[in-house]
Design a protein that fits this description.
Elements: H1 3-36, E1 44-47, E2 50-56, E3 68-70, E4 76-78, E5 86-92, H2 97-112, E6 118-125, H3 129-139, E7 145-148, H4 152-157, E8 168-172, E9 178-183, H5 188-200
Parallel strand pairs: 5-6, 6-7
Antiparallel strand pairs: 1-2, 2-9, 3-4, 5-8, 8-9
Amino acid sequence: MPSRLVTTVKGRKRAAVSLAAVAAVLLAGGLWAAQASGGTPNGETYVDGNPSAVLYDTGHRALVPDFSGTTLAGVPLRLATYRGTVVVLNFWGSWCAPCRSEGETLAALSGRYAHAGVSFIGVDENDTPTNAEAFEQGFGIKYPSLNDPSASIAQAVSSAVLISSPPTTLVIDRTGHVAGAIFGTATYSVLNTMISKAMTGKAGA
């Protein structure tokens, strides 16, 4: 091989290695920046660095499928009628210990946002109406809860966000898309942050 060609090939190899190194540094920097801010590179942000409390950026939000059912009070309810408002959708059961831990939080925040264009809806899974009503009365929960003994609503909503077991709480924006999700017990500060973000239309924590 002529010496000039050898030199050219080696030069190209060095340039390729240099570009790859620069790309690796930039990628690492981007990942570090996302992790440092509690975020991920796929449109998700962790609230307070908690991977069980996720905010979804605009453009990365799944549309929640419409569903309907009957509340514990015997009143028909359909999700589509809430379009245009922020909705907090909480999956729970009176038999669920973590659900009891978040009962006061949900009651307090539903009262705080009652006149601010935010609606709370519960989905009571694998439960009896008697136990569920006693649960709501005990924690002072006044918003409606759907009776879902077979968890069929949870299965339908899982096409947007996986609802594996209660408690799981979704914050749905005004267009019907999931703005945030808490997989586990909801705390006042985290859920309040998610509601505030959904109301303002801002993404990220």
